[in-house]
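Standup notes
- HV: blocked on the assembly model, inputs below
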Amino acid sequence: MTTMVEVFTSPGCRVCGRAKTLLREIAEQVGCDRIHWRAINVLEELDYAVDLGVLSTPAIAIDGELIFTGLPPMHALRAELDRRLAIET
Amino acid sequence: MRRKADDKRPEYRIGDVTRLTGLSADTLRYYEKIGLLPSIARTASGIRIYTDKDISRLRFIQRAQKMNFSLAEIASLLTMREAPQRARNNVRELTSMKLEEIEARLKDIRTLRNELQLLLNLCRTSDAGCPIIESLDRHENR
């Protein structure tokens, strides 16, 4: 099973680029076969973003659940993903 | 607004009520005529004297009208409001139905509020224009 990570971004959001970089690095560390991630421009998927409770960018959802609002520290995101992947295995 | 010397409960003349509720005097008299308000007490000279309970009832009517409930529906809901334990089955069913409508409306309102909040937050943090404007433009051009 893979974990789905979604990072919500918006035009003109400087921190969003860092969130995507962070996620890309973690996905490479953990293994792209275990984590699928995608970047979502909230303006393109407003309904979905609002349904999840996104009120600002960047925001990160894991498996359809909003987990981080703002840019999380790398260790926090990594710990959350490790926890979920451990439950799955 | 006036108080009787021997009574702490405030009393209101029709002008006071129009100021408090924004309803016109004609509307107040009409509501009394069709029974949405009980028969209002009068002074010896025939001036209507409203109580806090009447004001509360009028505010309920106004809220219900904002939900687009009909006057007939509001009249039924008022009987429920007056004596819930004695309400007839059809009135209970109507109340339950209206509660569901309100819950659905609340859900819509919450979603709309969150969407607008998100767009405003994006506006505040963006250094490349305002996404709320771009989003609205796109919706208009669809």
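- HV (later): unblocked. The two ends of chain B are 54 Å apart (CA to CA). Chain B has two domains: 1-87, 99-142.
- Next: hand off to the docking folks.
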